[in-house]
């Protein structure tokens, strides 16, 4: 099976990008990262890409203030490199409908809660964990899903829960959730790259051989 050509879109720290890089280097994922695109200019994620000789690029509000031009530039880069899979690894920007339609069921996002709880507009990064603690739920977790035109509304691929303990803080909870993000995202990407994910409506079927 040919290696899947992967683009990773990032905005910050890039720890999820790092798990994908590490799993590819270990031979766990049948793919190659062709490009890392960051919506922030000097993100640590871009440094991580450079450390592994992966091409990195800044496409953000400063160099492409117009949202359509920005997304069209991203599409141009993806098409030039014949990308099979786009991974949103802590990408804090909105993708255009045009891009989502062009890459239907080929964009995977990682979200730090159990969707459909604590997701959608305004729920990103630490804000998710703040909301979880404020609500007082006893479980939270991480979700890997395909991206559709909505915010965090696409078909769910994988989920895993963690307990919210009474002494948890945003810091401890985010660490617990991040640990499972680093298990789930590479697993979902591995499955995609082995053609094991079939989407029917909202349901994702995982084939096991
Ligand atoms: C991760 O926790 C990811 O789930 C979250 O941002 C963090 C990025 O960390 N994404 C969202 O909140 C998307 N709605 P990283 O840059 O270290 O991978």
Question: What can be said about this structure in brief?
Answer:
The chain is an alpha/beta fold and 209 residues long. 35% of the residues lie in helices and 24% in strands. The site of glycinamide ribonucleotide (GAR) has 15 residues, from helix 1, strand 5 and helix 6.
Give a structural overview.
- Catalyzes the transfer of a formyl group from 10-formyltetrahydrofolate to 5-phospho-ribosyl-glycinamide (GAR), producing 5-phospho-ribosyl-N-formylglycinamide (FGAR) and tetrahydrofolate.
- GO terms for molecular function: phosphoribosylglycinamide formyltransferase activity.
- This protein folds into 2 domains: 103 residues, Formyl transferase, N-terminal domain (Rossmann fold), CATH 3.40.50; 100 residues, Rossmann fold (3-Layer(aba) Sandwich).
- The chain contains 6 helices and 9 strands.
- The longest helix has 24 residues.
- It has 209 residues and is of the alpha/beta class.
- α1 packs parallel to α6 and α5 crosses α6.
- Strands 3-2-1-4-5-6-7 form a 7-stranded mixed β-sheet, covered by helices on one side. It has a two-stranded antiparallel ribbon with strand order 8-9.
- The site of glycinamide ribonucleotide (GAR) has 15 residues, from α1, β5 and α6.
- The site of glycinamide ribonucleotide has 15 residues, from α1, β5 and α6.
């Amino acid at each position: 099976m040919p290696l899947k050509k992967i683009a990773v879109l990032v905005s910050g720290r890039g720890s999820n990008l790092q798990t994908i890089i590490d799993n590819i280097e270990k031979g766990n994922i049948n793919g190659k990262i062709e490009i890392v695109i960051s919506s922030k200019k000097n993100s640590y994620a871009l440094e991580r890409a450079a450390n592994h000789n992966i091409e990195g690029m800044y496409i953000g509000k400063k160099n492409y203030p117009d949202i359509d031009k920005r997304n069209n530039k991203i599409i141009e880069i993806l098409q030039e490199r014949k990308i099979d899979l786009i991974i949103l690894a802590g990408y804090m920007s909105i993708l255009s409908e045009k891009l989502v339609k062009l890459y239907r069921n080929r964009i995977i996002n990682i979200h730090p809660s159990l969707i459909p709880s604590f997701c959608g507009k305004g729920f990103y990064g630490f804000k998710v964990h703040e909301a979880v603690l404020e609500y007082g739920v006893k479980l939270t977790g991480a979700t890997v899903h395909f991206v559709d035109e909505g915010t965090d509304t696409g078909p769910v691929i994988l989920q895993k829960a963690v307990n919210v303990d009474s002494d948890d803080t945003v810091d401890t909870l985010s660490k617990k959730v991040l640990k499972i993000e680093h298990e789930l995202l590479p697993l979902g990407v591995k499955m995609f790259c082995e053609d094991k994910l079939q989407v029917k409506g909202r349901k994702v079927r995982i084939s096991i051989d």
